[in-house]
Amino acid sequence: FAELHAAVPGLPLASSRVLPGIVLRRDFAAYCPTDGELRALLVTEPLRPALTAPGAEFVVDSEGQYQASLRWIANRTEALMKHLQSNNVKLLLSSAKQEEVVIYYAKLYGVSVVECLSSEEMALISEITGVSPYAPFSDNRDREITETAAVTFCQPLLLVSRRCVHIGFSSVCAFQPHCLILCGPVDGVNEQHAAALQEAFTMLQQLFKAVDQ
After folding, report:
1. Element (H, E) at 166
2. Dihedral sign, CA of 45, 143, 37, 168?
3. What is the pLDDT of residues 168-213, one digit of tens each?
4. Residue 102, burial from CB neighbour count under 10 angstroms (0-12, 13-18, 19+)
5. Domains of the chain
6. Per-residue CA distances from 103 to 91, 116, 145 (Å)
7. Element (H, E) at 207
8. Low-confidence ranges of the chain (pLDDT < 50)
9. pTM, 2 dp
């Protein structure tokens, strides 16, 4: 329930509504509008390639070596974004904070980015779509990307003064997610309404389980 409702203070209760899909309470790190269905990729690590393996030390002896390292990182990041583009990936959903070089090449190649998703949000998206996070720097980087999710729409959503991300997924299960936009004059009222609704949904779940048995 926590991932499927958004509380919006400062509006009357009558402004509350139910939206298809899910609402992520953060803004796009990069937004590239696109029409029609697109493919999304889940990632749990920074897409900026590391110069060394974990635990190893990388020593730079000169300014030239440092600049060469930056060029290698940029070229590797650009190659990854080209690979995503060739696999029709238009949306990155990341639990990790991505660096500026990643955002730059994402915008250049028409890939929207939403970062810093919680583990609960990532788990919910995986449940809806049936896909697992993608490992960008595996041994075979040129293989076809199969861990993509079908997205029916992806757009900004303004809730009073807060910019959010509104996404619709093609669900692989019977569960068709919808998000409750719960409005109220102040946070305390919203919290009371949210708690009451969650208790009502819990009661309905218990009722239907009893009927099934």
Report:
1. strand 162-169
2. negative
3. 998 887 778 899 888 888 887 788 888 888 888 888 888 887 665 5
4. buried
5. 1-21+177-212 (no CATH), 22-175 (3.50.7.10)
6. 12, 13, 20
7. helix 187-212
8. 139
9. 0.81
